[in-house]
Amino acid sequence: MDLIARLRAGLPGEAILTDPDITGSYANDMASFCEAGTPAVVVLPRTVEQVQHIMRTATELRVPVVPQGARTGLSGAANASDGCLVLSLVKMDRIIEINPVDRIAVVEPGVINAVLSRAVNEHGLYYPPDPSSWEQCSIGGNIGTASGGLCCVKYGVTAEYVLGLDVVLADGRLLTTGRRTAKGVAGYDLTRLFVGSEGSLGIVVRAVLALKPEPPGQLALAAEFPSTAAACEAVCEIMARGHAPALLELMDRTSIRAVNAMAQMGLPDSTEALLLAAFDTPEPAADLAAVGALCTAAGATEVVPAETAAESDLLLQARRLTLTALEQVKSATMIDDVCVPRSRLAEMLDGTAAIAEKYGLTIGVCAHAGDGNTHPTVCFDAADPDESRRARASFDDIMALGLQLGGTITGEHGVGVLKKEWLARELGPVGLELQRGIKDVFDPLGILNPGKLF
Amino acid sequence: MDLIARLRAGLPGEAILTDPDITGSYANDMASFCEAGTPAVVVLPRTVEQVQHIMRTATELRVPVVPQGARTGLSGAANASDGCLVLSLVKMDRIIEINPVDRIAVVEPGVINAVLSRAVNEHGLYYPPDPSSWEQCSIGGNIGTASGGLCCVKYGVTAEYVLGLDVVLADGRLLTTGRRTAKGVAGYDLTRLFVGSEGSLGIVVRAVLALKPEPPGQLALAAEFPSTAAACEAVCEIMARGHAPALLELMDRTSIRAVNAMAQMGLPDSTEALLLAAFDTPEPAADLAAVGALCTAAGATEVVPAETAAESDLLLQARRLTLTALEQVKSATMIDDVCVPRSRLAEMLDGTAAIAEKYGLTIGVCAHAGDGNTHPTVCFDAADPDESRRARASFDDIMALGLQLGGTITGEHGVGVLKKEWLARELGPVGLELQRGIKDVFDPLGILNPGKLF
């Protein structure tokens, strides 16, 4: 009995896609330089029972399963392999509960991040994790890749908001982890194990998420610096003095010029680094004044605090346009995601500039500076094999630099296909052996997203 | 070659205790109703290499190892078994680094919680987790049991402050997990797996801890209620309105009377519940006024806001004395740790009162009300077999009630020996099987703290 027929026994016809023209469009996420194969079938379940049927079938037939959310990922973790079953969770998109007293939401994995954010806002609540793709990306994908965003410097990452999960295991059994309570320490933290596991341990079909009270609206400032070192000094001072910015972002010269070229933002071309800070505290103007003074002391040539929300949005616009602007520089971009201790941020930026020079490449950097999380973006001509090779080589140098500075190869984008050779280098042999051991406990047949992570 | 001789090959003489009069004093932590055996030897290493030698020896000779911190735990997780090797980490008590820019501390496991707290305060930093035993308990023990405390309602639990670990595995190999960076998603989150694992997966020998900026001093209020239901309604309102108290504690009538009897606090005996709230915000008086109004609306008969830090301390004194006061009621106490969604807190308190009545027992409850985390404390005469039996039975009823209300059997004290039968009930067979599978990956010989958790 073949795969499709077996799937049909527990799924409605419209949930099973086999037309190669259609299934081909599910081949990959948004990562560059990552191989992707052709799926045998794409399934779009709407219920937990359907997911269980799919996984039972995959286990019986030993078919590899690639779970997918909105495919906005940047590491190839959702890329298909040849002959795999793509399990897309996008149709499981219900918000089941929003509870202001317990400050939790219960959701299915296909809920779009921005949809959840707006829904909880209506109850005076706040779901902080805000990846750049928040209007497209799904909560299930956010959980799979342990997504971050701009607000992490104050509010932390996705992992800190996942209290409990329902997970369909490789063999189709249903596991419930964690809790609905504010605290709980009963047994090993399986919930956290699934966050960032990139679909390699099970299929998340429901999540209990922690919410925060909605903060006051934020107010931003922009500060221009004559060097990245001066901007990084300001970052260190801001954090060492105990400030709690809701975002603290840095753009390097290449990013500034790209944004200027695309959007005529009028940022002075002489600026070597732009720092953006925002506060959602009760008295943001006072916080901005204090942070502005620290920027000036660190050498900022100009400090522009917003006085209204509209002015803030305008200042932050430059940051929001950065990736799009860098994509216009050459035919292709490759975005990295190295995170270093913030005390090493200046070295990371200087080192990245040296790598760009070494390979004769344009590399723009924007960074969640408060977290030490840099996104060096290599701009290259994909039609030029030599430049492509250099782009790939520079990417490796950037990760090596991050590790050398006490950092990690991935702050928030994950490992996927893109960085799996590098994961072994970061974890070392003992860590890698234990990670593989855990994988075997959950997926003894190795059918869940094979070829990712390890 | 015997165990002691093998240990001597890699440890100085004074690090090995074999005198039964001394080793017997390492038999147990502070839990009631938990069996404890007699250790064959107690070792007190001072270096990572010594811990590695101990674990290599234990693996070669298949000797069970019971890791211990300051033995202030309340679930028997640190209790010895007959013939075991007790591995006490108390001598590894160095604070290796405090870094205000990266907002981290690097510590050995034997550092006392309060010692670390005061050390980071000197740098304008704050290590929030504050178990009641903070002057005695060690960071290693806090990590092992995933400790909580009063401040969790605002600042979260120990797990949220552990960024990375060095762990000596059962076979003596050294594993480094996690990171020094603010963010990082490279592979499965092994760090979090160790937090709360009660020494069953490896020996934590170093930890990278996240720190917060030191908040302003806090200001408290006390509110007296004619019923626990009214107090719980106030709790729900406070949290639903988006307030962020630094603590939100509830004492029931039994606790209030016990404190009055011991310390003549002058709390009216007619009070059925006392709620204590504190804020460490920039404008605590305004927050207290708003919360006081919510208490009054929920039926508080009296609301007393402190105006100074000294007044706050006085108000909070009643809460701090509760457990000591309840210990005077009868010859023994047994403290439980059930956490429910805060929306179910009133049902938990009413149900606990009904259980006390059913068994003819005195059960005082204090609760981290903002977290829904209750500590029902059964007061009984340990010399009376029937009352002891009823005490044990009431304890089981309380956990069953917690699970029925969507809660967990342990919010912050852990499973240890005390609740291991109940863990299986909370996790269910699928969860339990996976947890055991993980245990086998890390400890295939089963020498690490056997008989705990599962």
UniProtKB/TrEMBL annotation, chains A, B:
This protein's name: FAD-linked oxidase
Needed co-factor(s): FAD
Source species taxonomy: Bacteria, Bacillati, Actinomycetota, Actinomycetes, Kitasatosporales
Pfam family, one: FAD_binding_4
Superkingdom of origin: Bacteria
GO molecular function per UniProt: FAD binding; oxidoreductase activity
Signal sequence coordinates: none
Coiled-coil intervals, chain numbering: none
InterPro entries: FAD-bd_oxidored_4_C, FAD-bd_PCMH, FAD-bd_PCMH-like_sf, FAD-bd_PCMH_sub2, FAD-linked_Oxase-like_C, FAD-linked_OxidoTrans_Type4, Oxid_FAD_bind_N, Vanillyl_alc_oxidase_C-sub2
Alphabetic keyword roster: FAD, Flavoprotein, Oxidoreductase
Family: Belongs to the FAD-binding oxidoreductase/transferase type 4 family.
Residue span(s) of domain FAD-binding PCMH-type: 35-214
SUPFAM superfamilies: FAD-binding/transporter-associated domain-like (SSF56176), FAD-linked oxidases, C-terminal domain (SSF55103)
